[in-house]
Write a structure and sequence with these properties.
Length: 238
């Protein structure tokens, strides 16, 4: 469960952990979620940080690349190809006379409907107050919902996961975190193939090693594959 305003660190650490685990050649050959998380929080702090800046620093450290995705369709495509996608959104914290704001609506909905699908009508229309940012991981999708892994512990919503009807409900922004085959050794590519059908390669931010979720197994992305005009941040340290 996250400490302070470290949702950004939890999401980035989870994406890095899951990506590197998929190319690991053996148990312990990949960085553990807790170790990555500690490094990020030590550098960027417990009071929030810009997701772009964190990815600029830590994706290259693990030979990963990342890109901003244009829309929900691209995010679904990335997940279908086996990659967890970082997502961020903003909601209002309070408004006059109703101090809980949109965040109160968000939390109450999933308290009352742990497996429910959040829609626009479940959040009040609000244009005043303080905006609060949150960063999560898109790990799966259903015909009528996107499934996210949260960092508020397993008591939130559906064992730490929650569902949203579509990207417009929360105004979601997406980041794809991935390897290119050109960045990997033959052994790592083979290791990825061997683990591609293993359903235990992901889990909750509470316990990434023990809670499994299906749907994160696919081929490695290739340069230019299915992306006409992506903004790709290469795995080189500036």
């Amino acid at each position: 469960m996250q400490v302070g305003l470290t949702c950004y660190a939890n999401a980035v650490a989870a994406a890095i952990h899951l990506a590197t685990r998929m190319v690991s050649q053996g148990e312990g050959g990949y960085p553990h979620f807790d170790d990555i998380l500690k490094k990020i929080v030590t550098e960027f702090g417990e009071n929030g940080a810009d997701t772009d800046k964190v990815l600029q620093k830590y994706a290259p450290e693990y030979r990963l690349r990342y890109r901003n995705l244009a829309d929900e369709e691209q995010a679904r495509l990335a997940v279908s190809q086996g990659r967890p996608v970082i997502a961020r959104f903003w909601l209002y914290k309070e408004e006059e006379g109703r101090p809980e704001g949109q965040w109160g609506d968000f939390e109450k909905f999933f308290k009352d409907n742990p497996i429910g699908v959040l829609t626009k009508k479940d959040l009040r229309v609000q244009n005043t107050g303080r905006l609060g940012r949150h960063v999560v991981l898109l790990v799966d999708y259903e015909p009528n919902a996107l499934v996210f892994m949260n960092s508020w512990g397993i008591d939130f919503a559906d064992g730490g996961y929650f569902r949203v009807e579509n990207a417009d409900v929360l105004g979601l922004e997406f980041y794809d975190v991935f390897f290119h085959k050109s960045d990997l050794s033959k052994e790592e590519i083979q290791a990825y193939g061997n683990q591609g059908s293993d359903p235990s390669t992901t889990g909750s931010l509470e316990s990434l090693s023990t809670v499994s979720l299906s749907g994160l197994a696919a081929d490695l992305p290739l340069d230019g594959e299915q992306w006409s005009t992506p903004t790709v941040h290469a795995a080189t340290v500036a």
